[in-house]
Amino acid sequence: MINLFCFLLLLSCAKDNTFDFYSYYSTQNTTTKTGFVKKNNHILFAQNYDKKICLIDDFDIFQNYKKRKTNINIKYDSYFNDVLSGNTLIDIDTNYYICFELDENINKNFNGLSINNFLSKYTKKSGAEKYILINNSFTDDEILSVAYCLFKVGYEIIFDDYIGCYYAKKIKYL
Question: What is the CA angle 110-100-22, rounded to 5?
Answer without folding.
Answer: 70
